[in-house]
Amino acid sequence: MEAVLHQWKANGGVDFNLEGLRTTLDAQASGIGDYQDASSESRKKLAEATKMDVKLKSVGPLLKSYQEEIDRLTLRSSFAEKAFLALYKPLSELPDPVLGLNRATEELQQVGKVGELEAENRRLQKEVEEFHKEFQEIQNQEVTVRRLEERLREYEGQMEELVADKERIAESQRQLASARAELLAVRQAYDAAQASLFDLKLRHDDEQAARQAQVELLFSEVERANASVLSLERERDKLKEQLSAERHLSVAPPEPDLEIAVAQKDIEVATLQEQVQQLQASLSQGAQAREAATAALQAQVQEQKAEIDALHKQLHSAPSASQMQEMKKQLQMLKSMELDMSESDPIGEKTVLKLLKEKSRRLETESIQLKARGKQVEEELGHTKQQLEAAEEKLKEQSRLISRLEEDIASAHRAGPPPAQSAPAVEESSGGGGGGGGKAMSQPSAGSASDDISTVTEIIRSQRDRFKMRVGELETEARKLRDQLADVQEEISSLRGDNLKLYQKIRYLSSYNPRQGKTAGDPEDPSELKYRNLYEDSVNPFTLFNRKEKQERYKGLNTAEKVTLHTGRFFLANKYSRTFIFFYALALHLLVFLTLYKLANTATLRPAV
């Protein structure tokens, strides 16, 4: 359109100047009128002169008048031809305005469509910005959820600390009671040990006195035995001396009675010596047993004394009753501070069970809020998916429109400018001299038309490039939205897992008071029912058994079967892999069929060859 206007404004570097051309044409039209008036008057004069009697003397002027009239007519015709050529020359070089107007109309329509597309893009941009804002709100809510989870973990840690303190206090109470019981038992054992020790001492003294008497008796017997042994040895020596003296005195053999008496004395001496040795051994054994019993009794006494001392120390180190009451008060104060108890409530009014119930209710409330927030996030996610699909459909429609516009431009470029229809008329009107001029003017007309088409093509291409860039930006934003959607889905799955863990903790806390549960008439929350079903499925023994059986079956497979199983899962899990397997199998079958067909044909044709 701009090129056509440029051609109308200027032609070959010279201004077309339509207003000036109109002024010139007006002047020329007035001149043509003057010439027409003068020609009519001269024709009238010639007619009058011709009607009069022709005289020889007036023939010359009459011919001169006719010659002047012919000159004026020639001047008039040349003036008209020059005016026509002057008007035709700029008009012949201008393109056909119909094509330009048609293109202008099409461009106006396309500009209207482009405006609609830009409005649609702006609307999509606003929607994307709204998505960003909503996602930012979701992130802020996620931060809030994380902060609540951190507070929940802190409360759980505090609850665990309180439970641990309570357990420690209970353990210390149990230890104190056991220590007191042990102390009482030790005191009783100490008294019994003292009594038994006194009895043992009495028995030991009695036994020692009896043993001392026995030892004295044994010593007296040993002394008597020694005395008798000595007397017997002396008698034996005397008898031996007498026997040797008698042997020296007489050669006769000794008397048998004397020898027998000596032998009996020797036997008695040996027997007495053995008895003495036995008595000494029994004395030494009795002394050793007495020393061992005394050492054992002393060790037992020392152990009991050590136990008594340890129990005394433990009793002194254990807190007293007042200290235990003070510790209980401090513990309840800590509980009231950490569990946000009111300051007006007296310390010790709420028990640990009530605190756990309140904590369980608070956790249930937070769980319900988190579940509601999860549902809201899921709904927003579905709405975002729908809007994203609508935006993708609009982008596809815009890309189709752009491709159709490019095809129209390419077809218009291939069609080229229409042939000029005025050149033959010019040739017919201007004769042989004007034919060359008509051909020369038709060539610039074709060049200007091609320049016009190239200019329009460049304009539309630039618009196409801008639309492509915009479409690329929208696709990038759509990709980002998809990534954000995937992140939101992952966070939803993590929130679902956290809610499941929270439900498990709530069940654990509610187990402290089994009687405080929901009655039969209480309505059941669907979200709680859902997470209860998930929790029961996670702890279902049949499900665990099924998983265990699957794992055992999988372990029972050999390497080839495992590779086949993983390969099948890999190829069947993806749409593109399934399509590839289908076409690959189809190509293999076609290849086998073609090979068999070719082999069959070559086998049938081989005998003929």
UniProtKB/TrEMBL annotation:
<feature type="compositionally biased region" description="Polar residues">
    <location>
        <begin position="442"/>
        <end position="453"/>
    </location>
</feature>
<dbReference type="InterPro" id="IPR057476">
    <property type="entry name" value="Cux_N"/>
</dbReference>
<feature type="domain" description="CASP C-terminal">
    <location>
        <begin position="384"/>
        <end position="602"/>
    </location>
</feature>
<feature type="region of interest" description="Disordered">
    <location>
        <begin position="412"/>
        <end position="453"/>
    </location>
</feature>
<feature type="region of interest" description="Disordered">
    <location>
        <begin position="371"/>
        <end position="394"/>
    </location>
</feature>
<keyword id="KW-0812">Transmembrane</keyword>
<feature type="compositionally biased region" description="Gly residues">
    <location>
        <begin position="430"/>
        <end position="439"/>
    </location>
</feature>
<feature type="coiled-coil region">
    <location>
        <begin position="215"/>
        <end position="314"/>
    </location>
</feature>
<dbReference type="GO" id="GO:0000139">
    <property type="term" value="C:Golgi membrane"/>
</dbReference>
<protein>
    <recommendedName>
        <fullName>Protein CASP</fullName>
    </recommendedName>
</protein>
<feature type="coiled-coil region">
    <location>
        <begin position="464"/>
        <end position="498"/>
    </location>
</feature>
<feature type="transmembrane region" description="Helical">
    <location>
        <begin position="581"/>
        <end position="600"/>
    </location>
</feature>
<dbReference type="Pfam" id="PF25398">
    <property type="entry name" value="CUX1_N"/>
</dbReference>
<feature type="coiled-coil region">
    <location>
        <begin position="114"/>
        <end position="189"/>
    </location>
</feature>
<dbReference type="Pfam" id="PF08172">
    <property type="entry name" value="CASP_C"/>
</dbReference>
<keyword id="KW-0333">Golgi apparatus</keyword>
<keyword id="KW-0472">Membrane</keyword>
<keyword id="KW-0813">Transport</keyword>
<keyword id="KW-1133">Transmembrane helix</keyword>
<dbReference type="GO" id="GO:0006891">
    <property type="term" value="P:intra-Golgi vesicle-mediated transport"/>
</dbReference>
<keyword id="KW-0175">Coiled coil</keyword>
<dbReference type="InterPro" id="IPR012955">
    <property type="entry name" value="CASP_C"/>
</dbReference>
<comment type="similarity">
    <text>Belongs to the CASP family.</text>
</comment>
<feature type="domain" description="Cux N-terminal">
    <location>
        <begin position="2"/>
        <end position="107"/>
    </location>
</feature>
